[in-house]
């Protein structure tokens, strides 16, 4: 079976970390990519779980706020949020003066 040279561009730091881990496992970079490609063809899907780094995930507090906002938007729970006529009214409410709301 013939093979075709393929160029893959990787960030330098990613390449170093990947090589270090593959070396520890006794696998070359070429072997790793060949294995991944063969499994993709066999399984017709990405052969591993794709995980987003934790820093890109919303916090649990943010997730709760998102669910609450969606529930209010869908009318599942009442939206008792304050509304303001203008910025002055908002500032007055923040200062505790509700006469301009």
Automatic annotation (TrEMBL):
InterPro entries listed in its UniProt record: Arc_rbn_hlx_hlx
Protein origin, superkingdom: Bacteria
Return the protein name. Answer: Type II toxin-antitoxin system RelB/DinJ family antitoxin
Please name the source species: Lactiplantibacillus daoliensis
- Provide the taxonomic classification: Bacteria, Bacillati, Bacillota, Bacilli, Lactobacillales
């Amino acid at each position: 079976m013939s093979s075709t040279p393929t160029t893959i561009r990787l960030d330098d730091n990613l390449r170093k970390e990947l090589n270090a881990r593959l070396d520890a496992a006794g696998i070359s970079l070429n072997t790793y990519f060949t294995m991944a490609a063969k499994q993709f063809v066999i399984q017709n899907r990405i052969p591993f779980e794709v995980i987003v780094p934790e820093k890109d995930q919303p916090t649990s507090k943010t997730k709760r706020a998102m669910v609450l906002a969606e529930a209010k938007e869908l009318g599942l729970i009442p939206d008792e949020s304050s509304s303001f006529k203008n910025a002055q009214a908002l500032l007055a409410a923040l200062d505790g003066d509700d006469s301009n709301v």
